[in-house]
Write a structure and sequence with these properties.
With about 350 residues, the protein is α/β, with parallel strands linked by helices. It folds into two domains: about 170 residues, Rossmann fold, CATH 3.40.50; about 170 residues, Dehydroquinate synthase-like - alpha domain (Dehydroquinate synthase-like, alpha domain). The chain is about 45% helix and about 10% strand. It contains 13 helices and nine strands. Helix 2 crosses helix 3, helix 4 crosses helix 8 and helix 10 crosses helix 13. The radius of gyration is 20 Å and the shape is globular. The structure holds nicotinamide-adenine-dinucleotide and zinc ion (ZN). The site of nicotinamide-adenine-dinucleotide (NAD) has 31 residues, from helix 3, helix 4 and helix 8.
Length: about 350
């Protein structure tokens, strides 16, 4: 039985981001010295979408480059930048998708724990309490706003800082922030939620809370993408999916997507879609997923094409098979006897 940590507070509603100022001001013990750090997806730089006029001179805004998914080296570099200040910040805010939010989550942990981020990739390796942190999604699906992980890509592995200390203290869910997301990216990230739910539901590690949350989140995603688009409902589905997967594990699709991402540099949601599209033999949800792609005129390319060498395929299969926990969630403890390297390569070749 697990003692599950959750986000303590959340605001939900259009315009909810207007509460950020009071949340930050409540943390400032000293008007002149207390400072906050905002990690904002660089899409918002010079766009006049976010009103940050209330920030103080001493505050630090970091516009995070999310062209690549967060790397351990990048997070270490940003942590060192914050450390050049005389004190620790009183709050850290992550505004963006899974990438910007995970960077903020990781920095909040690294500011109070020694050593580079790579040392904390894994489960429950963080000892000291982190800096207070707030998550504000501007695209929905990863569930990063509600999970206990900050996913980072290191030199050899893509693995999260899985810890109760990675959980945001406060979340702000404001549908207005999602208005500018391009439609294809919107679908890729939302499908991450759909796939988390499928993997939780069909896996072996779950409990009645996970099942209830994942079932409802899937139903919402189907309603939104096959019926009427509703950004607020999507934020709710993403949050529920995050909570569900936090108490469960991903399954077959995520390990395959990690292989694709590490070798080919594909973004998470996109790699998830390419992998899930070929997993009908494991997940009945692939049928609805294909209907959603069709409705939004999204045609996924074949990424494992003639340019891919056998060595690359081998590395992708190895990267997939490193994911023991998800694969044992999907197939059980003897997963190695069921899901062979040959099978992984056969699936990859279809993608
Ligand atoms: P992302 O954060 O990588 O952003 C994708 C793109 O959308 C970027 O180009 C970004 O600039 C753009 N974008 C974001 N908000 C926008 C807006 N409002 N308008 C226009 N463009 C906008 O995408 P993501 O899919 O949310 O996150 C993927 C990352 O999340 C991966 O690194 C993945 O590993 C991680 N992840 C984390 C968790 C977790 O629990 N921590 C779970 C799943 C995935
Ligand atoms: Zn995911």
């Amino acid at each position: 039985m697990k003692n599950s940590k959750m986000v303590q507070y959340y605001y939900l509603g259009r315009g909810a981001i207007s509460h950020l100022q009071e949340l930050l001001d409540n943390k400032r013990a000293d008007e002149e010295k207390s400072f906050v750090v905002l990690v904002i997806d660089d899409y918002f730089e010079n766009k006049n979408i976010l009103d940050l006029s209330y920030l103080k001179q001493q505050d630090l805004i970091i516009y995070a480059d999310t062209r690549e998914e967060p790397k351990t080296s990048y997070v270490d570099q940003l942590t060192n930048l914050v450390k050049t200040k005389e004190h620790l910040p009183v709050a850290l805010v992550g505004i963006g998708g899974g990438s910007a939010m995970d960077i903020a989550k990781a920095i909040s942990v690294l500011l109070t724990n020694p050593g580079p981020s790579e040392e904390y990739q894994g489960w429950d390796l963080v000892k000291n309490a982190p800096i207070y942190k707030i998550g504000i999604p501007t695209i929905a699906g990863t569930g990063a706003e509600f999970t206990r992980t900050a996913v980072l890509t290191g030199p050899t592995k893509k693995l999260g800082i899985n810890s109760d200390h990675s959980v945001f203290d406060q979340v702000i869910l404001d549908a207005d922030l999602l208005k500018t997301v391009p439609i294809d990216q919107f679908v890729y990230t939302a499908m991450d939620c759909y796939v988390h739910n499928a993997e939780s539901l069909l896996g072996m590690i779950n409990d009645s809370m996970t099942i209830a949350l994942a079932e409802k989140a899937s139903e919402l995603i189907e309603e939104i993408f096959l019926g009427e688009m509703d950004h607020e409902k999507l934020l709710v589905a993403s949050s529920m999916g995050g909570l569900a997967v936090a108490n469960s594990s991903v399954g077959i699709c995520h390990p395959l997507s990690y292989g694709l991402s590490i070798e080919l540099g594909l973004h998470h949601g996109y790699a998830i879609c390419i992998a899930f599209n070929q997993l009908d033999e494991y997940y009945p949800q692939v049928k609805k997923f294909k209907e959603i792609l069709k409705k939004y005129n999204i045609v996924l390319p074949k990424v494992i094409n003639d340019d891919i060498t056998d060595e690359q395929l081998d590395r992708m299969a190895e990267a997939t098979l490193k994911n023991e926990k998800p694969l044992s969630n999907a197939f059980g403890a003897d997963w190695k006897n069921v899901f062979s390297k040959e099978k992984v390569i056969e699936l990859l070749k279809k993608m």
